[in-house]
Design goal:
The chain is an all-beta fold and about 350 residues long. It has a single domain, classed as Beta-galactosidase, Chain A, domain 5, CATH 2.70.98.10. It is about 5% helix and about 45% strand. The longest helix is centred in the C-terminal third of the chain and has 6 residues. The protein is globular. It binds beta-D-glucopyranose. Beta-D-glucopyranose (BGC) binds next to strand 25.
């Protein structure tokens, strides 16, 4: 097991960006930047090769203003807030309208372009990297300071453990996710349409044509959204079903059958041909499955061009727009309390 680092480039403000690579005892390797806590690659040893199972870009400049959010941590509130506004404790807060009339991934000052303080540790479980940052009061339009620590540990059981800890000094909505784009056959292998998806969810949150939740929670039974029996992602993706037509594929929040008390199985993805499987565990209530519907030949690392459906994101989260829906689990972090959640990607190969 090891932790190495090297210079990756410079931000447009001239700050030095460092890439940190964690390697576990089985030869799995994951690399992160202190810019956006971006996971730039995740290598799975298979035979005499290493398969890079996440999409990424080539340079810091390519990651700057990256609307795909490849590999980054998204906060303070991931996914959409309808009308780019919410009211909390009687005060209306206005956010950036960066997605039509709505706010996506917290607007024009996204976390994927922020610099973090980094510490690395060799833990008994495996190598680990901690990113920390203090988000100032009213950053992105959200109330209160938020002291944020994000830790990724690459365990010797082939898990990438993503932990978030945040404490604010005012009540504020918080929903922080990891926006890695997975393709278990390799980021450069084409689409994920034949990879087999399982979702531990009986329902999803219905959205309108702009992907804003209507508030309705819909049973997946008998719909193309039912992945309780594993099936290839592509099997029903083109079904004549309004939520799929609106989003151009899967880009929805599933309401997980998890208790929230423990980190429990939420999903899995398997590339049967290559023999690589990933299981996703979390204690968060929601999971956005996004099948790269907006990718369209996007330029990636190593000269790769990512086609539509090149990858699948597993964004564990509070439901989108929860702050405007009383029937959704509450995303409000009370002043002085801890936001503490864990998501695990476990690889079997
Ligand atoms: C959203 C998509 C969006 C993508 C990249 C996902 O989390 O659900 O609608 O296109 O992020 O911004």
């Amino acid at each position: 097991m090891s932790i190495t680092s090297k210079e990756f480039g410079k931000t447009n403000n001239g700050e030095k960006v460092t890439a940190y690579t964690l390697t576990n005892k089985n030869g799995m390797e994951v690399t992160f930047l202190d810019f956006g806590a971006i996971m730039t690659s995740l290598l799975i040893p298979k035979g005499d090769k290493k398969i890079d199972v996440v999409c990424g870009r080539e340079t810091v400049q390519d990651y700057t203003g990256d609307g795909t959010y490849f590999g980054s941590v998204v906060g303070r509130y991931c996914n959409r807030i309808g009308g780019a506004a919410f009211t909390l404790n009687g005060v209306e807060y206005k956010l950036d309208k960066n997605d039509g009339e709505n706010c996506l991934h917290s607007g024009f000052s996204p976390y994927n372009n922020m610099m973090y303080e980094v510490e690395t540790n060799e833990t008994p479980d495996g190598p680990s990297i901690e990113f920390s940052r203090l988000s100032p009061d009213m950053e992105q339009g959200f109330p209160g300071k938020l002291d944020l620590t994000i830790t990724f540990t690459l365990t010797n059981d082939n898990e990438v453990v993503f932990e978030t800890l945040a404490v604010g000094d005012k009540d504020t909505p918080v929903s922080i996710t990891d926006h890695a784009y997975f393709n278990l056959a390799g980021h450069d292998s084409g689409t994920i349409l034949d990879q087999v998806l399982y979702l531990n969810a009986d329902a999803f949150t219905l959205t309108d044509a702009a992907s804003i939740p209507t508030g309705e929670i819909v049973d997946v039974t008998g719909t193309p959204m039912d992945f309780r029996t594993p099936k290839p992602i592509g099997q029903d993706i083109k079904a004549d079903y309004q939520p799929l037509l609106d989003a151009g594929g899967y880009d929805h929040n599933w309401c997980l059958n998890v208790s929230g008390k423990d980190v429990e199985l939420a999903a899995s993805l398997e590339d049967k041909k290559g023999g690589v499987k990933m299981e996703v565990y979390t204690d968060l209530p929601g999971l956005q499955i996004y099948t790269g519907n907006f990718l369209d030949g996007d330029a990636g690392k190593g000269g790769v061009k990512y086609p539509r459906n090149a990858a699948c994101c597993f964004e564990t989260q509070f439901y989108p727009d929860s702050v405007n829906h009383d029937n959704f689990p509450s995303c409000i972090l009370k002043a002085g309390e801890k936001y503490e959640y864990t998501t695990i990607y476990k690889f079997i190969f």
